[in-house]
Structures are given as structure tokens and as C-alpha cells.
């Protein structure tokens, strides 16, 4: 039963009809319905909204959990203007929600754009404001080349970032490394708790298990040492360096196969892999739904991914790290991304490279071979995932935060 009088409006600019929203929004909220009466405001892509069966299924799922869903269409073009329109529409919806005892409510903003909506509701209805940062978004825009350094959008974004930190009744960061950098962004409101809740995974789904022989046979992986990759190779992920590392593994291990589970253009990926030195007969490409991912990960002996190192990534946490480790699979990653390097090193759950250069690849081989030969590696990986990335524990942290703010 929901706690009387405790109402939460959770605002997500990521659509919950997308895999990310399903795993990182819905999965949490389903575990929080006993702590509050939850309303979810999300912005959905028109292509997703057009699939009526998926909309109906998600509506029924949220209804079963007791979650009220307010959905608005996500606008992409023109840039900036479309985002401003979404913020305005979100403010209208949030104000309507807040008319019933807004002063006793909580608005949980997942990211910076939702924080604009939450700040509006806090000022006009007195709701408590949770700023769930999800990374340093303004700096990400600059470091991704989408905004010019010190340009107008950057200056406006930084001004609002300071306002969010000063107004928030609680701040949530994905990483402890991100918390250490907060003084560079602005002053957190005095007395406001700052909580680290990393990107978690449903460890009941992403769990060790016997690899599926049928799936392994269909993909041509029988008898192979399988190094795996899951998700996009674009944006912050180092595509060329990652493919070069797989090429290195192909030279090091005679029966190695590189399994890529990705929605990227497979033709282009094959071309890029060949250019990186990965033989075509070693590369296996497939696509998968969110539900199919655990079974595919269990076919892998090691997971590999590299992320571009920059200031904003100190506040980032990759979901795939939690998923690999949850399945008992060691990883090869690069250092300097949030808390990931420290977590993997401390748990002896993989290899952490201080740089993604060929000489570092060679230096990683002995450590990787030792991990693969150690029968306790899978157990350590799983224990590391449970210790840091358990979805149930993450939801419990949010529940505690809600109780503190409501009290």
C-alpha cells in the first residue's frame, strides 16, 4: 500500500518505451510503489507511440504496479526550440498534477531537462525537488561537440545547473567521483543530502546460468572462446579502439570469436572491423531485444567496452558493466570513467586499462588469461555486481530518500 499523503511525480525525458527507459525507469518505479503514490511523466518518441501494442502492454504493466502514466510526445526538431516546447508541456502537466497538495509532494527529476520542470513545480507548488543528475549533462554537450565551449547555450546551461544544485532538496549522483566534482559545478543547498546511486541492473535477470546450446550453435560459437560486446559503438564509446582490441584478442586466442550484440549498422561494422584487423570469420553480429540480452551475455567469456575519457564521464556509469558482472562475466574496460575502474579492480572482476593503445593491449593479456583460468572469477564478478549494482538495493536507496524528504 502507498504511504498516505506521500506523492511522487517522476519526470523522465527518456521514453519508457525504449529499452533504456524500461530498464532504468520502469524497473525502479515498480519497486517503489509501496513507498509512495507514483505518477510517471515521460516523453515518448512518436515512432514508439505509433506501436499501439507496445503502448497498451506498457500501460497495463504500469497499471498493475499502481503507477499513473502521463506521456507526452518527444520533439526533436528544431533543436533547442523543440526541447523548450517539451519543457513547457511538461510544466503544464506537472502543475496540473501538483494542484492536489503539492506542498506535501516530491518531484523526482531524472536529468537536467526534467529538472527544469521540477524546479518550476517546486517554486509554484512547494513540492520537494530531487535532482537525479545522471551525469554532467551541460559538459557532455560541449565534450560531444554539440555545443560550443563558453557559447550561449553552455552559459545558460551552467546557470541553470547552479540553480538546480542550490534549489534541490536532495541530489543523486551515479558515482562518487561525480560527487567529488560537485564544488566545480555549484553550491549544493545547505542540508540537502547528496546520495550516490549507480546505474543498477535487475540481477534476477542478469544472472549466471548455463549457456544455451541451441543459441550457441545458431551463432556458430561451438568450441569458441567468446569475447563479447553489447550495445552501441557510437557516441561516447571508442569504436576504433574497441575493434582494435578485439583484433588483438583474435591474434592472441586461436579459437576466439567476437560476438557483437548491437543495433548498429552491421554492414558498416563489418567494414570497420576488417579495417581494424579483425578477420571476418571471427566476427559474429546479431541483434536482440532487452529480454534476450541475458541469454546472449551468458555465451560470452569476457565483455569488452571502452569509453572516451573526459570531465563529464567522471559522473557516468555504464549499465552494461552491471549486466556483464551480474552474469558472472569479467570485463576489460578503460580507466577514468566514474567509479568503474575502482569497482572492477577492487572486486578483481576484470582488467582495467590505463590507456587504449596497442602496447597496453599487450600488457593486459597475462592478466586476462589469469582471470579466465581462475574458477572463482565468475563468483567474484557476481558478488561485485550484487555489492554495487543490485536494482533492489538501488530502489531501496530511493525509498529511503523519499522517506527522508517526506519526513
Tell me the domain tally. 2
Average pLDDT reading: 95
Instruction: Profile the largest sheet.
Output: 7 strands, parallel
Low-pLDDT segments: none
Shape designation: globular
Give the C-alpha Rg. Answer: 22 Å
User: Would you tell me which CATH topology of the largest domain applies?
Assistant: Rossmann fold
Structural class: alpha/beta
Per DSSP, what share of the residues sits in E-state strands of 2 or more residues? 15-25%
Give the second-level CATH assignment, the architecture of the largest domain: 3-Layer(aba) Sandwich
What is the tally of beta strands?
A: 13
| Range of helix content | 40-55%
Element string (H = helix, E = strand)? EHEHHEHEHEHHEHEHEHEHEHEHEHEHHH
CATH domain class of the largest domain: Alpha Beta
The strands making up the biggest β-sheet line up spatially as: 3-2-1-4-5-6-7
Quaternary assembly:
single chain
Distance between the termini: 18 Å
Contiguous helical run count? 17
Please tag this protein with its features.
2 domains, single chain, 47% helix, 17 helices, 407 residues, globular, Rossmann fold
Q: What is the fold's blueprint, element by element?
A:
Blueprint (H helix, E strand, L loop, with lengths): L6 E6 L6 H11 L7 E8 L1 H4 L2 H14 L2 E6 L7 H18 L6 E6 L1 H14 L2 E5 L4 H7 L8 H16 L2 E4 L2 H10 L8 E3 L16 H6 L6 E6 L8 H14 L3 E6 L4 H11 L6 E4 L6 H5 L4 E3 L14 H8 L4 E4 L5 H8 L2 E4 L4 H16 L3 H13 L1 H16 L1
Parallel strand pairs: 1-2, 1-4, 2-3, 4-5, 5-6, 6-7, 8-9, 8-11, 9-10, 11-12, 12-13
Helix pairs in contact: 4-5, 5-7, 6-7, 10-15, 13-16
